[in-house]
Write a structure and sequence with these properties.
The chain is globular and about 50 Å long. Helix 6 packs antiparallel against helix 8. Helix content is about 65%, strand content about 0%. The protein is an all-alpha fold.
């Protein structure tokens, strides 16, 4: 009797295609997000530096926000945070996240060019190391005009929501709570290191809501997620 082939029906082999699709999808969209951000962000900042007229998107409460240099580590934890979907988000949600991030980048870039902003805070370099070196390097690279809406917050909120949407149905409430707390800490850090104002954060969150409303999964993806 002829034995059935094991290569196509094996659970071991069946498990690989979704994983491979997820990895390829993450890399594909990560490249496009990097291209969009590195094309848009520095260009908008350069154009803003040439403008004589800039805008003040400042509230009375911004003056009450202290500089807390220690939060610079939370601020930069944004970068490893963005990599988490590689392990925690499946297709087609990876593609949705990438599309929303690229669209958010382009929208933010347009606003940055049309409404270049002034930073309400004096750019103070802390006296104590390692904060002195970190803040000096950050101020050298980043001009304070790409403020509203905060692209830092747009990426953070989109990533955090994508992870929680993927993990909550699996019963990983503790993971969603940790991601939510980390996201809130990053949002707070943008203000506590005096890189952003309250309105920058609020408008970024509103933009995320708009992106979720406009860029939605196809009906087939809702019925048969990969």
């Amino acid at each position: 009797m002829t034995q059935p082939a094991h290569s196509s029906g094996s659970p071991h082999h069946a498990a690989h295609p979704p994983l491979a699709r997820k990895q390829r999808g993450f890399v594909f969209w990560a490249i496009w997000v990097l291209i969009a951000s590195y094309a848009v962000y520095p260009t908008a900042n350069w154009l803003a530096s040439l403008r004589e007229q800039r805008f003040d998107f400042i509230t009375p409460w911004d003056g009450l926000i202290p500089l807390v240099p220690e939060f610079i580590f939370v601020y930069f934890s944004f970068f490893p945070f963005l990599v988490l979907p590689y392990w925690l988000v499946q297709q087609p949600a990876i593609s949705l996240l990438g599309k929303r991030q690229v669209a958010g980048t382009l929208i933010c870039g347009l606003v940055f060019v049309l409404f270049p902003a002034n930073l309400a805070f004096d750019r103070v370099i802390p006296e104590v190391e390692p904060y002195r070196s970190i803040f000096s390097a950050m101020f050298f690279v980043d001009k304070p005009h790409n403020l509203l809406p905060s692209l830092h917050i747009v990426y953070t909120a989109l990533t955090g929501l994508a992870i929680c949407q993927a993990q909550w149905p699996k019963g990983r409430v503790w993971l969603c709570a940790a991601i939510a707390l980390w996201s809130v800490a990053i949002c707070a850090s943008t203000m506590l290191v005096h890189q952003h104002h309250i309105l920058d954060v609020v408008t970024a969150l509103l933009l995320v809501a708009v992106l979720y409303g406009v860029i939605r999964p196809a009906p087939a993806e809702l019925k048969h997620p990969a």
